[in-house]
């Protein structure tokens, strides 16, 4: 078989395995080991490459950023900081049509700067902002769509677990990836807010009937009490990384420690909650560890099959431009995003295209931002839009169906696609901050 046939069959085999219920890292590992065995007729070589994959990936020192930032995000979520920042933002946008939606986007953007998880954001704001929007007569589809759309900000605004995963796969600096994610994250947040304003002005039926929220302005003291702890945590973590005072691992440790202090000071932390956060951190870390190991053996299989070289020759033969290459890449991500979670999409497509992007002289940091934003769109698209499923399960409201969540998220998925096109067209938005 040709390298192209082997690569295509491997992707098809992985998708089939996932659909019949095989855990994604297991599917990646099984297909990779079987393919190497068939290619080299040497089962021992497959096992040896698996051992190398483990030692070369998850045993890296920088992998410690994953459990540290995960633990920090869980502590912040359990301490109720998400609802606090939402109340502040809601007060600021109370006299704007669709203001609660804008407040949700703004709060999600700030909350993302300490959690790095779209799942945590979706869970928190589904319980906090959706009931509030329904109370004031907003369209249920708009209410859940705003939460679903803005929850993906946790994947691009640093510290992001997806940026960390990409940094491991592409062998890039975690600090550089975090820096590069700032402007795209802010751009996506601002674009969401503008989109909601446009909807409120020209598509009032989608927004709902109530224009404003009847509430008093917050006092300066209330605002400071609710925002200072979160801003201080963001300053310590991201400020430490950007100034060079802390490495990403040290920043994760400092953030986790400060998050614990804040949670205990607010009396939102008990030994039981602390233990639950530790257990959940272990589960998430082990899952990501397994994914990275599986992706490492998968990329080695593709190298042995010669698929990257075959793709490079095909692109050169057809004289494909950078934008045509990126068009194919984005289409593949959008397709896989309807079937797999974001991390799996990144771990499957990046090893395929990385050898093609490097010879073109393109920035791998920029390529990582494009990859993460493109893969994020899958969080909002059926049949496996994880954020949508999390929102539905968190609400437990019979008035809102899963279809309503997906339909509400559709306009925001379109906005993300437009932002993705802008990021591809203007790489300086991602890497300009590094210069």
Question: What's the quick description here?
Answer:
The chain has 435 residues and is mainly alpha-helical.
Q: In what range is the share of β-strand residues? A: under 5%
Low-confidence stretches: none
Largest sheet: none
N-C termini distance: 45 Å
Number of strands: 0
What's the Cα radius of gyration? 22 Å
Whole-number total of structural domains: 1
Shape: globular
- Count the helices. How many? 22
Counting helices, strands and paired strands, the structural category is mainly alpha
Averaged pLDDT, please? Answer: 79
Order of helices and strands: HHHHHHHHHHHHHHHHHHHHHH
Describe this entry's structure for a reader:
This protein has helices at 3-19, 24-40, 43-56, 65-78, 81-92, 99-115, 118-135, 140-151, 153-156, 161-170, 174-202, 204-207, 220-243, 248-265, 271-305, 307-317, 322-337, 342-357, 364-376, 386-395, 402-425, 428-431. It has 22 helices and no strands. With 435 residues, the protein is mainly alpha-helical. Part of the tripartite ATP-independent periplasmic (TRAP) transport system. Keywords: Cell inner membrane, Cell membrane, Membrane, Transmembrane, Transmembrane helix, Transport. Belongs to the TRAP transporter large permease family. The complex comprises the extracytoplasmic solute receptor protein and the two transmembrane proteins.
Secondary-structure map:
Elements: H1 3-19, H2 24-40, H3 43-56, H4 65-78, H5 81-92, H6 99-115, H7 118-135, H8 140-151, H9 153-156, H10 161-170, H11 174-202, H12 204-207, H13 220-243, H14 248-265, H15 271-305, H16 307-317, H17 322-337, H18 342-357, H19 364-376, H20 386-395, H21 402-425, H22 428-431
Helix pairs in contact: 1-2, 2-3, 2-15, 3-15, 4-14, 4-15, 5-6, 5-13, 6-7, 6-8, 6-11, 6-13, 7-8, 7-20, 8-21, 10-11, 10-18, 10-19, 11-19, 11-21, 13-14, 15-18, 16-18, 17-18, 17-19, 18-19, 19-21, 20-21
């Amino acid at each position: 078989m040709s390298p192209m046939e082997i690569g295509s069959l491997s992707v098809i085999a992985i998708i089939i395995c996932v659909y019949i219920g095989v855990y994604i890292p297991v599917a990646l590992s099984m297909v990779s080991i079987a393919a190497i065995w068939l290619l080299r007729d040497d089962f021992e070589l497959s096992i040896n490459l698996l051992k190398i994959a483990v030692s070369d990936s998850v045993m890296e020192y920088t992998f410690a950023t994953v459990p540290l930032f995960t633990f920090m995000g869980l502590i912040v979520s359990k301490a109720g900081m998400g609802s606090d920042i939402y109340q502040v933002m809601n007060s600021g946008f109370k006299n704007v049509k669709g203001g609660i939606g804008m407040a949700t986007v703004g709060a999600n953007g700030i909350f993302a700067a300490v959690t790095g998880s779209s799942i945590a954001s979706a869970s928190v704001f589904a319980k906090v902002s959706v009931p509030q929007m329904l109370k004031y007569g907003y369209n249920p589809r708009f209410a859940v769509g705003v939460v679903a759309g803005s929850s993906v900000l946790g994947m691009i605004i640093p510290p992001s677990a997806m940026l960390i995963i990409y940094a491991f796969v592409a062998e890039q600096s975690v600090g550089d990836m975090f820096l590069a994610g700032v402007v795209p994250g802010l751009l996506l947040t601002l674009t969401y807010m503008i989109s909601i304003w446009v909807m409120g002005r020209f598509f009032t039926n989608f927004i709902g009937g109530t224009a404003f929220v009847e509430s008093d302005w917050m006092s300066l003291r209330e605002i400071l009490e609710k925002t200072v702890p979160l801003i201080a945590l963001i300053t310590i973590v991201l400020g430490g990384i950007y100034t060079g005072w802390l490495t990403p691992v040290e920043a994760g440790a400092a953030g986790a420690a400060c998050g614990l202090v804040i949670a205990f000071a607010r009396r939102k932390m008990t030994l039981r909650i602390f233990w639950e956060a530790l257990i959940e951190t272990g589960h998430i870390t082990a899952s990501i560890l397994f994914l990275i190991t599986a992706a490492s053996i998968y990329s080695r299989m593709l190298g042995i099959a010669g698929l990257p070289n075959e793709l490079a020759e095909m692109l050169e033969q057809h004289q494909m431009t950078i934008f045509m290459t990126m068009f194919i890449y984005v289409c593949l991500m959008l397709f896989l995003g309807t079937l797999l979670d974001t991390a799996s999409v990144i771990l499957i497509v990046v090893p395929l295209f990385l050898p093609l992007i490097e010879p073109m002289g393109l920035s791998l940091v920029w390529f990582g931002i494009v990859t993460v934003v493109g893969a994020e769109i899958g969080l909002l698209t059926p049949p496996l839009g994880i954020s949508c499923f999390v929102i539905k399960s968190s609400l437990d409201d019979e008035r809102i169906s899963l279809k309503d969540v997906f339909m509400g998220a559709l306009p925001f998925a379109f906005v993300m696609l437009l932002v993705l096109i802008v990021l591809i067209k203007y790489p300086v938005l991602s890497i300009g901050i590094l210069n």
